[in-house]
Amino acid sequence: xxxxxxxxDALVPWPLIWAGAALLVALLLFAAYRGLSGWWLRAFxxxxxxxxxxxxxxxxxxxxxxxxxxxVIEDRSASQGIGGRPAQMDAAAAQLEAALDARPxxxxxxxxVGDGEDNSGTRLMGALAQAMADLPDxxxxxxxxxxxxxxxxxxxxxxxxxxxxxxxxxxxxxWDRRLAVRNAPAFGILGEEIILTLRVEDxxxxxEDVQGLSQLEISVDGEPPVTVRVPTGRDLELPITLAHxxxxxxxxxxxxxxxxxxxxxxxxxxxxxxxxxxxxVLLVSGEPHPGERTWRNLLKSDxxxxxxxxxxxxxxEKQDGVPVSELSLIAFPTRELFLDKIDEFDLIIFxxxxxxxxxxxxxxxxxxxxxxxxxxxxxxxGPDFASADSLFHSGLANVLPGAPTxxxxxxxxxxxxxxxxxxxxxxxxxxxxxxxxxxxxxxxRWFRLVDLDPLAGxxxxxxxxxxxxxxxxxxxxxRVALLASDxxxxxxxxxxxxxxxxxxxxxLAHWMMKEPELEEEALWAEANGQEMTxxxxxxxxxxxxxxxxxxSGETERLGLQQVAPGRYEGTYVGAxxxxxxxxxxxxxxxxxxxxxxxxxxxxxxxSAEPLAxxxxxxxxxxxxxSAGMPGLRDVRPGRPAAGRGWLGLTPRNAYLTTDxxxxxxxxxxxxxxxxxxxxxxxxLYEGRRARRAGAA
Length: 696
Description:
By secondary structure, this protein is an alpha/beta fold.
């Protein structure tokens, strides 16, 4: 295809040419006024001279026509995978591509859009803007958006110089039910009620038999769910009381109703960190000794600890002649502490306490009952624990993990963590900051050890010749710790470099308070985007594979690698956003990658409303695919591009210039010759007219 046009490249400035034209017009008017009959020939001559000064050229272009471009953007986000939409999308995409290929001079550009990063939803407008940046506007004949209309960047609609059409997936009878969490606290006080605000919403063509009411299942930490009936379409306040410290995972589920589009938005996972308002500790010291103040200072340094401390300063057998009326000591409220209010304490510590008759056997029996029903007791043993007055010779013997042999060893030794202690969360890695070049803990020595015979529980630290130093045990619902020395205070004083007494006692207290992060047998996952690190802690020698159930109900198995004694880890990348269930042996855990109900499933009913402004700007149309695939036709720019059963494309007639040739319109000598001939013709014509006039 060729195209010609005339160009002007003046030999003199254009103002001179226009001045010459004005002078020529003035001379012609004067000639006409004087009656010169050849003025019109002189006009042609002057015009030819001015044209020569304008230097006309003939430009010839060789052009290759370019195809029009039809841009097809397919929304393949998660919400487009529910119901019959995948098959609907595949059929519509194939029919549209076939119709566009059948049009002469039309090229199809196809873009597929998935889920946005970081739960940002469907970024359809971003994909449209990026696709348009890669093609010339002069070739764009039309844009087709195959989507459910639920886009999440509709406010970023670009300017499109062509009709935009929406081909809407879904069916007229579609309906869905979703669970929305309106408000959830990040943490809560143990034992106090917190409120979650929820809402069950129905969307679309909801059947009459399911309108108004729905069931709600609530499960905490994988426990069997509790089911309640709730109204739909209104905010609900759900009271919850946290049962333990650390992370509490609350799973709330709306059971699937018949006919709803998806269950991906029927669940929500709320993770609430349980914290103790105050840790109530009862410290009973049997007699003054160097470690007594260390215990007191350690517990008082923590503002979250309510400490009740009693010390036996004047035992009953002491006879010093001081009248009782002159003593300023507070009476020991034994009945109130050990009978009436014992269950109000989170932890009871006996520090070098022995039987003196102050606590009757009934009270110590009650302490044993307190442990079995969920309480915690820490016994720091001194020499008296190996005597006839030992607490072991009381009702507490039923819950203690070790029995004294009546031998007290007085010599220096360095406490050591046992093989089982390297696995136990209370002492795991406790010696790491103190290891020397040979891998031996270089912390300070202790100088006393009460010899024990293990009866139950786990020995996590040992002293001289492997004798038990720290024993832990579970009794009923409660927990007991037995420390067979009263020299832990040497570490806090920095003797021979000191040691991790503060960290040891902190872990002990948290383990006895049943904090989840210090459980011996535990399974949990730490999520980071779409990746989770699965952690399994055990006191055993080996574990099985972890069973992972993804949001769609499919299961996979993952083997974990041992990274430390008793600690196994593995990495898993989840393909979908949602709730994942983990199971290994009898342990179960729940973790959410992204929100349990992603943004893609907040609105699942197909609608063209979010894209209405973009469609109207280009005179395009929105068509439901459930009504059939529309036909295609050409429309002129600015005209309506949609009608009953058809959608329009605007032909662009674009081309690519492959060659350009420029040549003078006429040679310069020919312009000069024409000008001279016209001047001579005018002179001859006027002379002839003059001779005729004279003859007449």
